[in-house]
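Subject: for your reference before the review

Hello V.,

The reviewers asked for a structural picture of the protein, and I figured it would be easier to keep everything in one thread rather than splitting it across files. Below is the amino acid sequence we used in the manuscript, unchanged from the supplementary table.
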Amino acid sequence: MIVPDPDGIEGIEQFQSPGKGRGLRACRNFTIGDLVLACPAYSCALSAAERGAYCDCCFSRNKSLSKCGQCKKAFYCNMHCQRRDWPMHKLECSAMCAYGEKWSPSETVRLAARITAKKKTQLEKTLSEKLLLVSDLEANLDKLDNEKKEMIEADIAALHHFYSKHLEFPDHASLIMLFAQVNCNGFTIEDEELSHLGSAIFPDVSLVNHSCCPNVIITYRGIVAEVRAIRDISPGEEIFTSYIDLLYPTEDRIQRLRDSYYFTCECTECSTKAKDKAKMKIRKLSTPPKPEVIEDMLRYGRNAIEDFRRAKHTKNILLLSICELSLDKMGSVFDDTNVYMLHMMYQAMGVCLFMEDWEGALSYGERIIGPYRVYYPSYSLNVASMYLKLGRLCLGLDKESQGMKYLKKAMAIMEVVFGKDHPYFTEIQKEVK
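And here is what came back from the structure prediction:
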């Protein structure tokens, strides 16, 4: 019988996971949709792109936010949120006024500055650290290559440049440790359509290990991370989430995990490679392509994805041409259900949305959703967000019947991953007639 740690969290406990180090396991039964763990952010930073739409303190979406009277760049629900955020915002407020448009620390640097400031004043264990202290987060310093070391040094230089007047820094070695911890343990907070809202540190949630066959999913209620079961979990069973996008074939997933998290996944999905054949489907041609042609196209697909990511910030009409050219080239070999085709369709859909080409976006989305349902887990935010986008696009194009069908499918997933009382779920309920 698993006996829970009296100083931990009800229903789960920290343990030494064989071959994985620290992990979390269940001490009782959890059923699909159950809340396994809720953890407030130890520290967080709202994306600069979302200022004015979301509260800088609680990340609530609000149409009537009040701006900071000094910098006029931070926005809050009310005075309560503004006072709560002041110990962190004061690190940036006067500097933003002084630097103006030159104020440009990365989100990682902003988060590291806030963690540094909090460590100076927060002497007791926080509600985010019931199982793991922020100082004990894994850093993997011994596994950093020269490129990652150079990136950390650049972040430290930016930290000194933008915060030297308002923050007392620890020694250089401690800063290297801090940025390495943030890089390994930082969480990206996203909304119901998977748009990036900001970054945060959730120490207790960092204990959840990875599997490409996850039994929980992490979603966000403002700046609280919620871990919910997407499969039934029995006492003694380890709790697993996915650290990466599960769309891609085994080789790509393993490489990304090694590059970002320094381990090799040995889950059932990686061992059996059960979905790889479908994910890498080749178009039926009168003369099947040779293996070297397929390998060349695979290399092209990977490079095209990286090229698009680098160019994505430009937000111009040429991006759609890049997507269409890539789709034409890959489509000469790959089937439409091939994951590299799907990725480029997803990017093309995003460009269409930016350009307000609603019909184009809908067309791409409807080609994507079928394979998504096959490749992702049953309760996936990637699938739910795609249904949600399709539903809203259909409603905007006066295709009400089809729009309602898509929204109801989104809700069926969101009820599990967010819970019925989550604002995202209740907002969509209002859209469904």
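For the response letter, the relevant points are probably these. The first helix runs from residue 79 to 89. DSSP finds 15 helices and twelve strands in the chain.

Happy to draft the paragraph if you're swamped.

O.
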